[in-house]
Structures are given as C-alpha cells and as structure tokens.
Amino acid sequence: MGEASSVSVWLLAVRPKTLTAALVPIVVGTAIAYLDGGTLRLWVAGLALAASFFIQVGTNFVNDAIDFKKGADTEERVGPVRVTQSGLLSAKAVMAGGAACFVVAVLLGAPLVWVGGWPILVIGLFSVACGYGYTGGPFPLAYVGLGDVFVMLFFGLIAVTGTHFLVSASWSVWALLGGLQVGAHATVLIAINNLRDRTTDARVGKRTLAVRLGERGAKGEITALAVAPFVLGFAWCARGAWWAALLPLLSLPVAVTLIRDVLRTPPSAAYNGYLARSAKLHLLFGLLLAAGLSVSLWLTG
C-alpha cells in the first residue's frame, strides 16, 4: 500500500463527518463563557478542541476494531466502510492508533489541568476512560444501550460546561442549557447510525437503544432529539439573549427535512446520507447558536 493510500485509509478510520460532535460544544461553551464575562483565551479553547478531537478519533478507532472483533461489522454492513472489517488495516493497528490518540489527548489536556485544576483532570480522565469503554472493556456502553447517554454527556453537557469553566473559571446554568442543545443534536448522529445498523447489531447481541426501542421508537427518539434544541433555545430569552434563541431557527428546515426522510424511510444504506445531514444540522445549529450569543453580547455590551 502506498503512502497516499495509507493516509487515505487512516482518514477513513477517523470518520471526519462525525468530528462536528467535538467541534461544536467547544465553540458554544466558549461563546457562553464570553457572554458570562469570561476572558476570551483562544489558546485554552484551542487546546480543549484538540484534546476533544483526539478523544473522539481514539473512540472511533477502538469502535472500528472492537465491533469487528465482536462480529457487529460484517460484509452485510450497509454503513460506510470500516477499515478493520474491510481488511484495510488490522485490528491490532487500529487499536494501537486509538491508544496513541488517547495518549495525545492526555498530553494536550495537561496544560488545561493547570488552568482549571482538579475538575478538569477528572473530566479529562473520565472522558478518555469512557472513550475506550464505549465499545471496549467489561461493560461496553454501546453494547448495553448507553451509547446515546454517553454522547449526550460527553459531547454535550460535559464538553460545554467544561469549556465554559476553563474560559470563565465558573460554572453556569446557561452552559448546561447550551450543553443540552448541542448534546441533543450530537446524539442524533449516533441514533441514526444505530437505527441503520439495528438488525445486524441485534444479531450479535449489541443492544443499542435502537435495538431496545425498535424501529418506531428509535425514529421517535431521533425526532425528539432533533426538535428539542429549538424548543430549549427559547430559554435564552430569559437571559436576555434573544438572538441565541432566534438565529438557530435558520437551521430548522434542515432538521424538518431530515426528520421527514427518517420517518418515511426504513433503515437502509440511505441512512448514510442522513448521517451526513445530521452532522450538517449539528454544525449549522451550533455555529448559529454561538453567533447568536455573540450578537446578544455585542448588543448589550
């Protein structure tokens, strides 16, 4: 395999379309901290973003290798190519890549611990442990139906509130609100992914929430998660941040068409396109929310 093709294979394993889940909460957490009077320390936000990226990529690598080992990824898979299942990389190599990513995340997080103290240390170590425990270890979260909870917590509540704390040195109920909003849309990604793979997952004992809820229940979950951030957004009006409630509504048509298509379509390869669209919704909503927070600060500052 040539150098160029090797790079492209590892890039495939990274799953770039899912990385919005790491980007959006850092951007939103920084914007909320700035609204709350925090000093804009871009180097802190940048390190937090880099660490978050490496945790997510490490999680993706471990998921790729372990799902193959456990038989969840086979030639019957209708989702995007997985490098271990397809034979492009060995499970050992992919697991080593995941371990390397987690080590880099810890190294990047060290200066953040110096800034934020023991709460950031706890958050960082717990995030890395759960990144591996998503599919690995004695109690793999994805295999017992807790994958959606993991995403809501770590790519929503914890990421946003942790970033807010790093930037402002304080905790805020408004960071919890932003965490719920971006966490819900991040969870749409995994919910669509799991609904697509529901049949093959059930066959190997991977009891995702989509397996437990069934097709109808899983579609209801996706609908609720896609709509909830828009409804929750009106709470920003109580903070006087009207633009944080209004600007994200520009992404509502993306959510509506996504929900419509998911409800109309049985789980199939078409869901690969829906997964990409859910990432687009997550990114667009998050950037609009951050912009709305910034405009609100500018108008009241």
Task: Write a structural description.
With 301 residues, the protein is mostly helical. It has a single domain, classed as Orthogonal Bundle (Farnesyl Diphosphate Synthase), CATH 1.10.600. Helices cover 74% and strands 0% of the residues. The chain has 12 helices and no strands. The mean pLDDT is 88.
Secondary structure: elements and pairs:
Elements: H1 3-14, H2 20-35, H3 42-69, H4 91-116, H5 118-133, H6 147-168, H7 173-196, H8 198-203, H9 209-232, H10 242-246, H11 252-264, H12 270-300
Helix pairs in contact: 2-3, 2-6, 2-7, 2-12, 3-4, 3-5, 3-6, 4-5, 5-6, 6-7, 7-9, 7-12, 9-11, 11-12
Summarize the entry for a quick read.
The protein is an all-alpha fold and 301 residues long.
Largest β sheet strand count, sense and barrel closure: none
What is the chain-wise order of helices and strands?
Answer: HHHHHHHHHHHH
What do the pLDDT scores average to? 88
| Ends apart, CA distance between termini | 57 Å
What's the Cα radius of gyration? 19 Å
Contiguous uncertain segments of 5+ residues = none
- Overall, the morphology is globular
Q: What do we call the CATH topology?
A: Farnesyl Diphosphate Synthase
Strand content: under 5%
Structural class label: mainly alpha
- The count of β-strands is 0
Helix fraction? over 70%
Tell me the name of the CATH class. Answer: Mainly Alpha
Q: What is the domain total for the residues?
A: 1
CATH architecture: Orthogonal Bundle
Tally of helical segments: 12
